[in-house]
Amino acid sequence: MNVSLQALFPGIYVFTPGRRVLSMRQVRAEAVTAGFLGLVTHADVCVAQDREALVIEARWNGRAQGSPVIPGLRELDITLDGTMTSFRDTIDRQVRVSKADDPLAASGASLLQILFPLGAAAVTNAKYPDQAAEVDRILDEVKQPKWAPVVAEFGLTRMITHITELATEYRKLLETPAADGLKYETVKEERAKGQNLMLQALAMILGKYPSESDADRAGREALMGPILRQNDAIGQYLKARRSVPDVNPETGEELLSSDAETSART
Q: What percentage of the chain carries pLDDT values higher than 90?
């Protein structure tokens, strides 16, 4: 039985740090109004955690001013980007040139949707840790026995082997501490902490307003609203097969990459 917070709130997507900061600042304001002092304190912890996560992510990606980049990572990232794009395009071409009634074409189309639901760019444009996780997910899926006929008939075996080799080297570089001592595991841990703290806030709200009475429903709506609105926004991006940008934690404005770096340093 899985009673983790993520399992108990399955409809909540993984937020970017900026979206969590924005949401929890708004939750804090509502908690002050409601006199929910425990949530006020917890929201402060959430905001502090994700502000630190923003700085750490910027350092890790080599974007914050003066932050060193892991030698060889950028070059390998470029190679992996091109290979993943070619892999996606190869499957797509095989599906397109197949006969309409070819069952393998239908299987290939399903595989393509599972591997690249937001397109190749969502993988190749992701930050280093995100891209590593996505490539691992793609490899785990495509290596399942049920896809063996598609892999064989579409001629994907050599590409999968090559991607596996690249992914192994990519992760090895990511797990090598940067010159300033920052490790990939630290980045992952900071992200997980922020998400878990936000889910804890939802659990606290549900615990205080547990019933279907009008008063409890209103309490949940006011305090959960900031998180649920951001969750809905993330869902719209995913349904449109688009990457989810971070937001300015102060204004809520969506950020381009360069803007995100500046936000992390402020």
A: 61
pLDDT digits (tens, 9 = 90+) for 167-221: 999 988 888 776 667 777 788 889 899 999 999 999 999 999 999 999 999 999 9
| Burial bucket for residue 99 (CB in 10 Å: 0-12, 13-18, 19+) | exposed
Residue whose pair of structure tokens reads 């929890």 in the numeric block: 24
Q: Which domain range does residue 29 map to?
A: 1-48+184-208+239-266
CB-count burial class (<10 Å; 0-12, 13-18, 19+) for 160: middle
The alpha carbon of residue 133 and the mean position of all alpha carbons in its chain are separated, in whole angstroms, by 9
180 class by beta-carbon count within 10 Å (0-12 exposed, 13-18 middle, 19+ buried): exposed
Kindly write down the DSSP assignment for every residue of 84-96, as one continuous string.
HHHHHHHHHHHHH
Structural domains counted in the chain: 2
